[in-house]
């Protein structure tokens, strides 16, 4: 009984382990699919660039983002290979166990067959039974011959089942080996692609270094636009926060109605409780992250604070609200075109680089509602998004769904 229990426990453990490994492999496959989708979008954007001097830095940013995605794909493949190699070792051990069991059963069955062959003459069986010293012994000898026949039949079934399990395990092992070999080829292909992309990035960086004076002038203008955006949005949020401070709370309007501009704490709490689960406002690939960064080529040049994230997107992509709220302002800023600021209690979200806007100041909007479409500025299809808590900018990637 104990032996059967141990076998059952081992089988259940193996099944659970296989299920966990399959889930991990599936998760990695989904991750690779998204990264490959990002690379496809980046390739389309690179093909749209005409490689004019003003687009070199943009192209370099896209290529480097593609390299990063490619590196993640390779890391994912390496992780999958480790899982498959673990599965191969487990599968081989199980195959060895099944082979040993099959050999044992086959050996026992052969012994039974040889014994039956030696005693195949039924007259000898009868003589053996009739020569019994007692009736009880005769019955025991008759039972032995009946059991021998039954054992042979049962053993034949066990041998057949063991052989089938053995073949199934061999098939699984061969399948795992084929998957592993196929995956190794893909890793080789990805590494070849990665080297080519790194070569492209190196050439672009060299061109930027060579024509530094030209690009520094362009960079200065872009930095000025970003600083202006940071200042303007901070001012707008400060004004809105001050208004929400309650200076008009409890006052009577001309109609006698009591008005209040207190922060909607319920909405703020609902917004905060969805941290890490908010939907992305648009589908795309992040090319500029939150915070302070150095120039990708001029290493000693620090760029202005990035108060949000910038994504490369499909041309004319629709932008959607990440949560319920009220439109505070719609403003136009150089380099960022139309920008929509939405209030969510003490939180604010900013949607910028828009070509068209479908909402207006004071309008209540809901999660997923379209607020506008992305504009093509200087040949680039970029969308910039920010998220603030009061006057403090937050890293949107900590709030948006992974």
Please explain how this structure is put together.
It is a single chain. It contains seven helices and ten strands. The chain has about 400 residues and is an alpha+beta fold. Strands 1, 2, 3, 4, 5, 6, 7, 8, 9 and 10 form a ten-stranded antiparallel beta sheet that branches. The protein is elongated and about 110 Å long.
Topology:
Elements: H1 2-48, H2 56-118, H3 122-130, H4 135-210, H5 212-243, H6 265-273, E1 284-288, E2 308-313, E3 318-320, E4 325-333, E5 337-344, E6 347-357, E7 364-365, E8 370-374, E9 382-389, E10 392-394, H7 396-399
Antiparallel strand pairs: 1-2, 2-9, 3-8, 4-5, 4-7, 5-6, 6-8, 6-9, 9-10
Defining key terms:
10 strands; 10-stranded antiparallel sheet; 15% strand; 7 helices; alpha+beta; disordered N terminus; 402 residues
Proportion of residues in β-strands: 5-15%
In terms of structural class, how would the helical and strand content be classed?
alpha+beta
The whole-number mean of residue pLDDT values reads 76
Main sheet makeup: 10 strands, antiparallel
- If helices are DSSP runs of H or I spanning 4 or more residues, what is the number of helices? 7
Shape: elongated
Oligomer kind: single chain
Number of strands: 10
The radius of gyration over CA amounts to: 36 Å
Order of SSEs: HHHHHHEEEEEEEEEEH
Give the low-confidence spans: 1-13, 120-130, 246-261
Q: State the end-to-end distance.
A: 49 Å
What fraction, in percent, of the residue positions are helical?
A: 55-70%
